[in-house]
Amino acid sequence: MSATDKLIAGYQRFREGYYEQNKDQLSKLAKEGQFPKIAIISCSDSRVDPGVILDCEPGDLFVIRNVANLVPPKEDNDSLHGTSAALEFAVTGLEVESIIVLGHTQCGGIKALMDTPATEAPDTFIGKWMQQLEGVRNDILEDESLTTKISRYNCCERKGIQQSLQNLMTFPWVKERVEAGTLKLHGWRYDLSSSELCAMDKKSGKLTRIS
């Protein structure tokens, strides 16, 4: 069976199973629109599906996915800002109550950044996107306590979440709501090997397992 044939077979199972069993709720979403309370910035990695990991139903999550689950800072220029546009809609349009930056272990974008020499100018879309963490990468490479590639990858993954949380506050419509107490920001990290989910302390960066 080809990859696309597998998808078609899956769609048929969905139509005959899940759709039929949940037709009323899905029809309600179609007629009334979406009202998720949570927005999640997640990695594009095919192994990290927020809806699956968190066992959510359609309409529960507004998911924004990109390489390495990064939130860029607010920029006032004519470039295309897909992640920023999605965030703006989630916050000002859907009025979500929480934004979660969901990082994960074994991130390919993080590996690409850490394995590329600092002196090598990026000439790919991925390379330019990951330059957001250039300062983080350089600090990690100078940290003599990080002696292995794995420790450097893990550190960069954590600091990437921290930086994204900081960058969220550069958007005035996020900052205003956080300060008013109507919007909360969270940093989470999912371990692909153990399926452990941890929450991050925004100031210290310490991870605590979510029980």
How would you sum up this structure in a few lines?
By secondary structure, the protein is of the alpha/beta class. The protein is built from ten helices and six strands, in the order H-H-H-E-H-E-H-E-H-H-H-H-H-E-E-E. It folds into two domains: 33 residues, no CATH class; 172 residues, Carbonic anhydrase (Beta-carbonic Anhydrase, Chain A).
Lay out the secondary structure.
Layout: H1 3-16, H2 18-21, H3 23-32, E1 38-43, H4 50-53, E2 61-66, H5 82-93, E3 98-104, H6 108-115, H7 125-130, H8 134-142, H9 149-168, H10 172-180, E4 184-190, E5 197-200, E6 207-209
Parallel strand pairs: 1-2, 1-3, 3-4
Antiparallel strand pairs: 4-5, 5-6
Helix pairs in contact: 8-9
What is the terminal-to-terminal distance? 39 Å
The share of residues in helices is 40-55%
**Which homologous superfamily in CATH is the superfamily of the largest domain?**
Carbonic anhydrase
Number of helix segments? 10
Principal-axes geometry comes out as globular
Instruction: Give the averaged pLDDT, no decimals.
Output: 95
In total, the number of strands is: 6
Spans of at least 5 consecutive residues whose pLDDT stays below 50 are: none
CATH C-level of the largest domain:
Alpha Beta
CATH architectural designation of the largest domain: 3-Layer(aba) Sandwich
Oligomer state of the chains in this structure: single chain
